[in-house]
User: What shape does this take?
Amino acid sequence: MGEKKSNNDLVMLLLKGRTLIVLLALFIFFSIAAPNFLSVATMLLIGKHVALYGILAVGMTYVIITSGIDLSVGAVVGFAGMIVGGLLQEGLTIEPLGVTLYFSVPAIFVIALVLGALIGAVNGLIITKLKVPAFITTLGTMYVLRGFANLRSNGATYSSLAGNEALGNTGFEFFGSTTFGVPNGLIIFIVIAVIAGFVLSKTSFGWHTLAIGGNPKAAKFSGVKVDKDTIIVYIISGACAAIVGVITTSQLMAAHPATGESWEMNAIAATVLGGTSMSGGIGTISGTVLGAFIIGVINDGMVMCGVSEFWQMVIRGVVVVLAVVIDVAQRRLQAKIALQAKAPAVPEKTGDAPAEKAKE
Assistant: This one.
């Protein structure tokens, strides 16, 4: 019995540390398979891509902790990018007044952020007030936003987003550039991750978020405003996606309606790989950060190794499925260990028992 418990504890330890173990294994593998993988240039490129998946995954972590899902984040990236591109290139025309307004880059960033938050709020309201499942709600939102992104420019690309000094809208390249050689997107990701991690682990809102995912009915009876906090969670997810839309558009200095396609899968994979349970109630931002690095390393490592784009899609899908399978295995093992801990101790049988009974 003791040996079995020791084995279970070892397996649980490996499952809990799987994210770091996998990340180290990937670094070792790709450093051998791709000679230039460990170069500074490659690390900065990975960091640049990790920032995009990571910011999306931070918002997704809050959502999945509440037992929800947000399939619209990739579409929000593309839609926000198109709004930003349109405002930079064409401005905002008010036809009744016959005037066109041009906004500064900080103002455009705020507009994109508010827009993403509003989309998240709509998702949250539909889920909580109309009781539509999160999967269906955000899937529908994804299609709606993809449609609006294409309608914004009739499917065309906004290019040359450098702005015009006379219009006061220059400087957009900042979000996609570097500071002391470090991608600004990565810096933004680190700041967001630190804030999100603090909120989740040190504030009442974070505790309520975990409680909602663990048992929403019990949380409600405990005084948690389940609907309100759930809406806020989707607002966070939408805002994070909009930030990614701004950073991506700045990196490309162009906006295309298809930007962000399938990125929701990268966000979900990073979140689950980081230890967030798809059943809700369990998750950390630090784990999600590691998960985002795993996705970034896999994606860029496969490109450097010359893996076909089609095989890349297959491998990403397998990674998502394996992450969920491991999550389920961990929860089952935790339940088994908890059950064993509660079980009463059974006295061991000895060879003298029959003799003692005979004496009586």
Q: What stands out?
A: Residues 221 and 247 are 41 Å apart (CA to CA). Residues 353-360 have pLDDT under 50 and may be disordered. Strands lie at 92-94, 99-101, 158-159, 178-179, 182-183, 254-255. The two ends are 31 Å apart (CA to CA).
